[in-house]
Amino acid sequence: MNMWTIRILFLCLCTMAGYAISQVRPESLQWPASGFLGCVIGAGFGWLLIALDEMLKGFSLRAFSATTFGLALGTVVAKLVDGSGLFDTVEGEAVRWIIRLCLFLGFGYIGIVLAMRSNKEDFSLIIPYVRFVPRHEPVNLLLLDTSVIIDGRITELMATGIIDGIPVVPRFVLEELQRLADSSDALKRERGKRGLDLLKQLQENPKLGIRIHEGDFPEEKGVDTKLIRLARNIGARLYTNDSNLARIASLQDIICVNLHEVARALRASLVPGEPILLRIAKEGRDKGQGVGYLPDGTMVVVSGAQHLVGREVEARVQSTIQTGSGLMVFADLRDQETDTGFISRA
Known about the structure:
This protein is of the alpha/beta class. About 50% of the residues lie in helices and about 15% in strands. It has 12 helices and 10 strands. The chain has helices at about 5-25, 35-55, 60-85, 95-115, 125, 145-150, 155-160, 170-180, 185-205, 225-235, 245-250, 260-265; strands at about 140-145, 165-170, 210-215, 235-240, 255-260, 275-285, 290-295, 300-305, 310-325, 325-335. The strands form 2 sheets. It has a 5-stranded parallel beta sheet. The two termini are about 55 Å apart.
């Protein structure tokens, strides 16, 4: 159910409650149209609470408990100061009331601020020899987005044990995969079906223990925003292939792993003079060039290999260039009569 639907129902209940109170106790409203005034007061009270709800959006339960503890601590200190008799010599009841009000407001504010700035280890100073520790070991949750599910490498990485944890797939990511699988666009439809098939492989692997998370944020429109909020709420590590999502997540202090960056870090370095074996896939942009690809997707431009399209050749690395889309390698055909020590990267 949408949050605004609940708010509208609550507003209607407040309005009806205001009208009912005006009819039960009409003497409380000294106005001819007491029913109308009761509805207005009830609706105003409802809108006030809804505005307060909007102001407290993102206010976590931990922040609420810390605020309550700080307010209680500040109130106790203010009560002790007030009961010490320090201000008994002050004449005038109104002046003493103002001093007491300032005491409670000031110490309450200081207690709230100190509690909000503290962490759970600071409470060991208040309660000696007591530490707040979890009863079980923390669970490593891996929140998967649509792109990393479609990519499929996460399945193999988790099967090898390199990535350890419990994969979590939100319900809204499943819905996005379903929309892609039902799309009229052939490419999107193929990507959606691939994502669903890979997700089924994850579910059929008993060692992985994949979880489907039912949490959703109807007020958020984008899937990326929902993923970031869910990762913060459940304390999960976000896995994605979307560079923009990874950048936004890092700006919001969410631990995010981009598999493209992981693959780039694990890619073997190519040095000038190193021999490689590859298949020429197409002609290059310039005359005489052939283009091939290494198994990790690195594009290799081979001089003098234009006539060798479709054939497997031996080449020697001449230089490498890092571009925005990845690493580009320039190579020449290897002189097989004079060179030895061939290294295959196929």
